[in-house]
Specification:
Layout: H1 16-19, H2 25-33, E1 39-40, H3 53-71, H4 81-93, E2 103-106, H5 109-120, E3 126-131, H6 135-142, E4 147-154, E5 157-158, H7 165-168, E6 174-176, H8 190-202, E7 207-210, H9 226-229, E8 234-239, E9 251-254, H10 257-271, H11 276-287, H12 290-316, E10 322-323, E11 331-335, H13 342-351, E12 354-355, E13 357-358, E14 371-375, H14 381-399
Parallel strand pairs: 1-12, 3-4, 3-6, 6-7, 7-8
Antiparallel strand pairs: 2-9, 4-5, 8-9, 10-11, 11-14, 13-14
Helix pairs in contact: 3-11, 5-6, 5-10, 12-14
The structure holds pyridoxal-5'-phosphate.
Pyridoxal-5'-phosphate binds at residues 44, 108-110, 134, 136, 177, 182, 210, 212, 239, 241, 246, 251.
Length: 400
């Protein structure tokens, strides 16, 4: 049969929730800068120098050699037992008793955000988020058409005092990133964690603690997790993306068993199970004790890169520009003089060879347009200095 030719394109009829969803501004920026000679301070990618390639290669080899057929088979939706036990043991060792049945393995914590949206969000139902918040979470939740209510943040993280009965009313979840937040790099203080747990109890709120960066501290571990304070109502998410490699697509949820079972049913409908081979290789590499030597290396690398950026900001930025001083993680957040719009600075910045992410898309509601996010982890020190100097020149000219 001859293939039909010259047929008019068929009209797509996407559901409202899909049609309304906007693509990520960050992806668009990455497209603009791909291949070009641009110093990208925009990406949220971990440094490839941090990927333990030989250890992962050996682990994949060992798994395929010793139990190849099982490793290539479908597996349980909740995830590999050895991997869940390793995660549970680590939480327990940190003082938060955890069992493997409180752990669900997911295909990156981004999948957990989608599952949480599916499980708890619906048209018009309120979700509480920090202002600003992680763009990928706002995107994942938006599919389910919730109403966002925002909580103010400052240098000590989100302000729990802002949670009163009106703000909390009918809220399905409160989503926050207590450690080295994306995009601001800020950390929620211990006092505020305690207050947040209390507010959650007072208002019968469930907390989502998204913590992919907590292990990436520079000098001192952050305060205990939110789950340590409010285990009965916290859904904790974390990921191997920033501590092993994002290409593995491995993350996890730790929560009360009833919540894990709900998310597990939804995950089953989504993808049946997370990649069996990858989970087994990760379990193998973790059992070898890799983290004991690997984590200190990433911490030292990122701490040094962060310092280069902070020094460059101090040297080059004009008066009126403020920035955060992260104690871990991958990001610095800048606040420019109020009259400036970071989005309008992006194209001229790319034309001069430096990219950043404007702050606007990180806000669920009213954006502060004079903000932007810089990442320092994938760019060599000399380029960080050069990129910051260029950006500072542009900001100074715009503010003049
Ligand atoms: C705060 C936060 N949550 C979740 C994710 C998703 O990570 P992954 O799906 O790779 O685990 C990211 C990625 O950058 C992030 O910054």
């Amino acid at each position: 049969m001859n293939a039909p030719r010259d047929l008019p394109p068929a009209r797509l009829r996407p559901a409202q929730r899909a049609a309304r969803l906007k693509g990520s501004v960050i992806r668009e920026i990455l497209k603009l800068t791909a291949g070009a000679d641009v110093i990208s301070l925009a990406g949220g990618l971990p440094s490839p120098l941090s990927f333990p390639v030989p250890a992962l290669r050996a682990a994949f080899d060992a798994v395929l050699r010793d139990d190849g057929a099982a490793a290539l088979q479908y597996s349980s939706t909740e995830g590999d037992l050895r991997l869940r036990e390793w995660i549970a043991a680590r939480e327990t060792a940190r003082g938060v008793p955890t069992t493997a049945d409180e752990v669900l393995i997911v295909a990156g914590s981004q999948q957990a955000l989608d599952l949480l949206g599916k499980a708890f969000a619906e048209p018009g139902a309120p979700l509480l988020v920090e202002s600003p918040s992680y763009l990928g979470a706002l995107q994942a939740f938006s599919v389910y058409q919730p109403t966002f209510r925002t909580l103010p943040t400052d240098d000590a993280g989100l302000d729990p005092q802002a949670i009163d009965a009106a703000v909390a009313a009918d809220a399905r979840l409160l989503y926050s990133m207590p450690n080295f937040q994306n995009p601001t790099g800020r950390t929620l203080s211990a006092e505020r964690r305690a207050l947040l747990a209390q507010a959650a109890r007072d208002h019968d709120l469930w907390l989502v603690e998204d913590d992919p960066y907590g292990e990436l501290w520079y000098e001192q571990a952050p305060p205990p997790s939110l789950r340590a304070w409010a285990r009965e109502r916290t859904i904790r998410l974390s990921s191997f993306s920033k501590v092993l490699a994002p290409g593995l697509r491995l993350g996890y949820v730790i929560a009360p068993v009833e919540c894990i079972e709900l998310l597990e049913r939804l995950k089953q409908a989504t993808d049946l199970c997370t990649a069996t081979l990858t989970q087994r290789a990760a379990a193998q590499v973790l059992a070898s004790g890799l983290m004991d030597t690997h984590l200190p290396r990433i911490r030292a690398l990122y701490a040094a890169q962060a310092q280069v950026m902070l020094d460059a900001l101090a040297e080059h930025m004009p008066p009126g520009v403020q920035w955060t001083r992260p104690a871990g993680g991958m990001f610095v957040w800048l606040q420019l003089p109020a009259a400036l719009d970071a989005m309008a600075l992006l194209r001229p910045a790319i034309a001069r060879g430096v990219a950043f992410v404007p702050g606007e898309p990180f806000y669920a509601l009213e954006p502060m347009r004079n903000t932007l996010r810089l990442s320092f982890v994938t760019v060599p020190a000399e380029k960080i200095r050069q990129g910051v100097a260029t950006l500072a020149g542009l900001i100074a000219a715009a503010a003049a």
